[in-house]
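Why predict the complex rather than its parts? Because the way molecules touch one another can change local conformation, and only a joint prediction can capture that. The input here totals 778 residues.
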Amino acid sequence: MPLRRTSPARPRLPLLALLGLALAALAPALRGGEAMAVIPAGAYRPIARATTDPEIVPVTAFRLDVLPVTNGEFLAFVTAHPQWRRSRVSPLFADETYLAHWAGDLDPGPSAALDAPVVHVSWFAARAYARSLDKRLPALAEWELAAAAGYDTPSGRDEPAFTRDLYAWLSAPTADPLPSVGAFRPDFHGVRALHGLVWEWVDDFDTAMVTGESRADAARDQNLFCGGAAASATDPGDYSAFMRQALRSSLKARQGTASLGFRCAADLPLPPSAP
Amino acid sequence: MNTKRPTARLAGLFLAALAAVSAASASEVPSAIAGRVQLPADVAALPVEQAILTAPPLVPPPITRRTPARVVVNLEVKEVVARIADGTDYTFWTYGGTVPGSFIRIRAGDVVEFHLNNHPSSKLPHNIDLHAVTGPGGGAASTFTAPGHSSQFTFKALNPGLYVYHCATAPVPMHIGNGMYGLILVEPEEGLPPADKEYYVMQGDFYANGAFAGGGLQTFDTPKSIDERPTYVLFNGAVGSLVGDKALTAEVGQSVRLFFGVGGPNLVSSFHVIGEIFDKVWLEGGSRLAQENVQTTLVPAGGSTIVDFKVNVPGTYVLVDHSLSRAFNKGAIGMLKVAGPEDRVIYSGKEVDAVYFGSSAEEGSAAAKRQAELENKIKAEIKSNPTIAGLTKEMQIEKGKQVYMQNCFACHLPTGEGMAGVFPPLAKSDFLLADRERAIRVVLKGMSGPITVNGHPYNGVMPPQGEVLTVEQVADVLTYVTNSWGNSADAFTADEIRKVKGE
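Output of the joint prediction:
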């Protein structure tokens, strides 16, 4: 990315807008065909569910970005879509922390390297970004299915090296500044940095079953009899899943945090229509 | 799942914005906001004060006011890397940057405006369940806070006592296991009795992905936590947190109060201070003084106790969980150093260090043989050395004098002169000095009937002492009387006494 520049006086300079549009057009090409990985069809077992929820959520095959969205890519997006710039975004769609660590509207600055994941983005902004590329955010079940993969197998829970790396990251404070997205080992599906870099928005994040009072979550369904944290959990030993659910539950769609980014998903291409 | 695919990018954005508006209301569900409470006039009129929060082992000063107040508490959640043991760091999650978290002190009847601030660098959402709160979750749902956000709720402190607070976000054992707990004291309206020193100590069990003091940076180990196999059991979050120059201190004569809690997540504590007795225990942190003179008090996980004791003697007193592998191998050690003057009546310190063989060394055992060898060697040494032999006689005389002054002097008098016509004299007594065996026999077995001593007749009764005195004491007292008041004779030996006793 050649575009480290000093902050422009006004972002509506025609030249800059053109540059942004060019970047926006370039971005999908940069990501290219191999920038998305195919996640085969599978099933997701929700960590906590009400008795009326299905025990298994089937997931059809889909495509998932190999890497989380970077500051550089998000810069291209806000350049092309001025309504998502920090100074212009509607307070309905982003709170005052939106891109707060950037130096300027179109200048990520020293604390947001172009190849580091973009954070402090709202769910609305992440969704708009995905749509701008004809993509979407992954569903919770899709993200969890992909993230269950280890380095060498579809189930990382059985790989000691994978679980060690996973919990080391889960326990550590957020890195500042965040490292490049490129430094991560590809997983079984060829996807990188699903764990170990930032949390990621999912499309249906607000269906998470965790309330602030985790031990009372079971009470959200009156069919359950006990208020213990794990009463409605299918696997109370999977602490990493609880942590992601807790984080999702704590969020609102216009918020972002210093450790929350996103990546995009897409349906598999339809089979070519008959001639 | 979103599968729609807008044909035009701009249109897509517009649709996204519309969809977003509808999603916004749905996303309010997880942590509903009730709005600020409208305080009634009498509560709103209460004086407002900012709570003083202290890091362990310090405690905020006692509350002196005797009327309620509105107390504002600002507690920050921060995830920090800190030392857990020599050369070993751990990623702690904290209230206020310390483990345990800041100590909060309020008074029963206070209305508390509680702010929980989750630092922007936090990776996770957190909340707080204060056991002092009456209401669902103890404030947990009301304080569920994303990183970089702040929550506020209000509660009234209805019940006095010492209460644990902790994080209740799933997975709870991990949040508590990383250090998210502390104590809040709700003083009774009349206050607690005064104490010279107050300290704050909490025990917690830690599950690290490495060995005890294994070096490097350690983090939480889920399987160990689920199996309840802690790597560390610690007072105040680190090995040695209350040791050396960080030890608690007091002066002789002061009363010491410990506010002690157990965060868990899993273990209970058999809390004990080595060398002290708790004069008073507010069992389980309740408001009534429940017990006095306690050696070890049991503190549940998520529970507390208040103990008071006066320190009388200088020295180092060690705080332990008396489930001692935790103290010896996992770090559950703290120290209280007491300075001041000795009181050797209450505690003398070591008075004597002597070789001890054991009186019941088995016959033929190595220990018995060694003992016999040594005794023979000592005897030979004494025989061959007249100085020591003489010294032995002097010691016997000295010891015999003590026996005499307890058992004999009442009749024979301290001067050995006896009482004319009633109790015969020992001083310069021809009867005594004429026959050693007879002298021994009289002491052991007593005597009655007429005798003549130094030309004067006596007809009294001498009670037997054989069951009262040991053979050594008989030998000593005879050596004394035959070498005092102008008398002179060889020392009596225990063997001589035994020979007569065995007749």
